[in-house]
Design brief:
This protein is α/β, with parallel strands linked by helices. About 30% of the residues lie in helices and about 20% in strands. It contains twelve helices and 17 strands.
């Protein structure tokens, strides 16, 4: 995310979010192995559990129905090295504080993703020797906390470092391969044109490595975004970039596109209200986008005075609001409450299969294009568009059409 994060508490955020209905087999202190749906990990707003006056996650869950949280941020040690820490100071290997937060969330039926990187700070992609070493460091985080989701937030200054981005993208690909069902998101800076030169280079690196995450998300704030209309315009332009980079059609690009906003006053003095969030939410839902998140839950409460004397805070929004107003849009995106102005989709009738035999089993490593078929969970499925490592039936808006039992 953006400069405010570097100034207030932990310094940076690279974001890979892993989800799906297929559970990862990874042990952790709480013993949780059951994943939420992809939609929840895609909707998880950011929470700093150790900095910026962390709110009580259980309180937010009770007040809003939120189930998923994006915990920030995992970085390289401030003194250098290739081992994961929280904020550059607290080693993941010996952590108990963040684990306690995770245990509380899971005990209430929720789950977490972990955000790595962000704006400022030293990233593991900068200090680890190669993609394999970078992936090994992140695997420690996945294994310790039994993660089903992880988000790589690739932005300044790291995304200006070609070697670091190669390490991060390579690590993301390795994690995706070694942890079946992991929901992976890559987040980068947004501009009016979609994303800037370094963001486009990052996409080209992903293409060159043959890596496709669940989504590429942009952050349309801190760049002259005066309204929700400016943000949705950036999302439209970013969709075109995804199409031209990967050769996707428009629907496929939207199915791999995400939005990461900032609630209230941004670092550069832009203001995003609840009405702005609703507008972008409706756009994301109507276009069947894969992700809708924001920075941050630490800020999802009113300042005193409400405008915070015209400054940006890491612990409140600088706009008039009730506690957790913005978290409610994440809950809507997850599908618990249909977004305003968006009709509830009519379920597609399940066709009667002409044969009871199952076709070739779905594989997380295989690439499927429109019309390809695969079997999974006792059903045959047909791909609606290009897809790889997206579990059939995991998402209402996913790439698979259920063709019935087999």
């Amino acid at each position: 995310m953006r400069p405010l994060r570097a100034c207030l508490g932990a310094a940076a955020a690279v974001t890979l979010a892993a989800a799906g209905t297929t559970a990862l087999v990874a042990s952790n202190a709480s013993g949780a192995t059951t994943a939420l749906s992809n939609r929840w990990y895609a909707a998880a707003p950011y929470l700093m559990p150790l900095d910026n006056n962390p709110p009580n996650a259980a309180t937010i869950m009770d007040a809003t129905g939120l189930k998923a949280f994006q915990l920030a941020f995992v970085l390289a040690p401030n003194g250098g090295g290739c081992s994961p820490t929280w904020g550059g100071t607290a080693a993941v290997s010996s952590d108990t504080a963040v684990q306690s937060v995770i245990n509380t969330i899971r005990a209430k039926g929720g789950d977490v993703s972990v955000s790595i990187g962000g704006y400022g700070g030293t990233k593991l992609g900068q200090t680890c020797a190669d993609p394999a070493a970078t992936a090994a460091a992140y695997q420690q985080v996945v294994t310790k906390y039994g993660l089903h989701a992880i988000d790589f937030d690739l932005e300044e200054p790291e995304y200006e470092n070609t070697a670091a981005i190669k390490n991060e993208i390579g690590a993301a690909k390795i994690l995706q391969q070694n942890n079946p069902g992991l929901y992976v998101s890559v987040t980068t800076a947004g501009t009016a044109d979609g994303t800037g030169w370094f963001g486009k280079q990052m996409l080209l690196e992903a293409k060159s490595q043959g890596f496709t995450p669940n989504n590429f998300s942009i952050m349309p704030f801190d760049g002259g975004f005066s309204s929700a209309a400016a943000q949705t315009g950036a999302l439209t332009n970013f969709n075109s970039i995804l199409q031209s980079t990967f050769g996707w059609d428009q629907a496929t690009a939207y199915a791999h596109e995400g939005f990461s906003g900032m609630n209230g006053r941004s670092d550069s003095g832009e203001y995003f209200s609840q009405a702005d969030f609703q507008t972008v939410l409706d756009y994301a839902t109507n276009h069947h986008m894969d992700r809708f998140t924001f920075w941050s839950l630490n800020r999802d409460r009113q300042c005193t005075p409400p405008d915070n004397n015209g400054t940006t805070s890491g612990t409140c929004s600088s706009v008039a609001q009730n506690d957790w107003d913005f978290a409610k849009y994440s809950v809507k995106f997850a599908g618990v409450t249909p977004p305003t102005g968006t009709p509830t989709p009519t379920p597609t009738p399940t066709p009667t299969p002409s044969s009871t035999s199952c076709t070739t089993a779905w594989s997380s490593a295989a690439v499927y294009t429109a019309g390809n078929e695969a079997s999974y969970g006792g059903h045959n499925w047909k791909a609606k568009w290009w897809t790889q490592n997206e579990v059939p039936g995991a998402s209402e808006w996913g790439p698979w059409q259920d063709e019935g039992t087999c």
